[in-house]
């Protein structure tokens, strides 16, 4: 069972199967289903490690099929691994949103807030820069805080400003 090559011990493929008491096709099946299982687990527990190990197991199952029955079996196993992984991941993505775990972590409401929703400012309104405008920052205009953009460059906090143009939610200001 143990062979010696250049004074180093090694195990051959047949020795490993003999130790595990498996036939070639049993090893192929175990590697294949373990690989598919780890690829599916990667969907539920993302982190790339399980997915990589699963893909390595799938490739090992292809190699085991190749050594057991030749190149055609290896190619068929590779195609089966690709198709099995694809359909397993699709099935996992379809069932994931319905699980208890996903309901805790996936938001069910859409975020509808926008910055400066229809600002209540007009050209000529005065205010004060609350932060440094370089050229974007925050200002208080008519008692409300707005995200504004300076048309003249950098404006220091506390500087009096006035609105020179309003383009949708974009407020352009300059020194007063």
How much beta, percentage-wise? 15-25%
Low-confidence stretches: 1-5
Number of helices: 5
Spatial strand sequence of the major β-sheet? 3-4-5-7-6
Quantity of strands, as a count: 7
Explain what the structure shows.
The protein has 176 residues and is α+β, with helices and mostly antiparallel strands. The chain has 2 domains: 3-105, no CATH class; 126-175, Nucleic acid-binding proteins (OB fold (Dihydrolipoamide Acetyltransferase, E2P), Beta Barrel). It contains 5 helices and 7 strands. The chain has helices spanning 13-20, 24-44, 49-69, 71-95, 100-105; strands spanning 3-5, 8-10, 126-129, 136-141, 144-150, 160-167, 170-175. A 5-stranded mixed beta barrel has the order 3-4-5-7-6. Helix 2 packs parallel to helix 4.
Topology:
Layout: E1 3-5, E2 8-10, H1 13-20, H2 24-44, H3 49-69, H4 71-95, H5 100-105, E3 126-129, E4 136-141, E5 144-150, E6 160-167, E7 170-175
Parallel strand pairs: 5-7
Antiparallel strand pairs: 1-2, 3-4, 3-6, 4-5, 6-7
Summarize the structure.
The chain is α+β, with helices and mostly antiparallel strands. It has helices at residues 13-20, 24-44, 49-69, 71-95, 100-105; strands at 3-5, 8-10, 126-129, 136-141, 144-150, 160-167, 170-175.
Index terms:
OB fold (Dihydrolipoamide Acetyltransferase, E2P), 5 helices, 176 residues, five-stranded mixed beta barrel, disordered N terminus, alpha+beta
């Amino acid at each position: 069972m143990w062979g010696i090559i250049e004074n180093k011990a090694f195990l051959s493929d047949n020795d490993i199967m003999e130790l595990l008491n498996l036939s070639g096709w049993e090893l192929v099946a175990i590697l294949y289903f373990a690989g598919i299982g780890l690829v599916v687990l990667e969907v539920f527990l993302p982190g790339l490690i399980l997915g990589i190990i699963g893909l390595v197991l799938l490739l090992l199952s292809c190699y085991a099929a190749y050594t057991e029955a030749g190149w055609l079996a290896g190619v068929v196993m590779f195609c089966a691994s690709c198709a099995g992984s694809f359909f397993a991941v699709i099935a996992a993505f379809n069932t994931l949103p319905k699980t208890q775990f996903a309901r805790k972590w996936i938001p069910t409401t859409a975020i509808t807030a926008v910055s400066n929703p229809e600002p209540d400012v007009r050209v000529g309104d005065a205010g004060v820069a609350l932060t440094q405008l370089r050229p974007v920052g925050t200002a208080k205009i008519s008692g409300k805080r707005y995200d504004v953009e300076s048309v003249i460059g950098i404006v220091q906090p506390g500087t009096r400003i006035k609105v020179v143009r309003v383009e949708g939610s974009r407020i352009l200001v300059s020194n007063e």
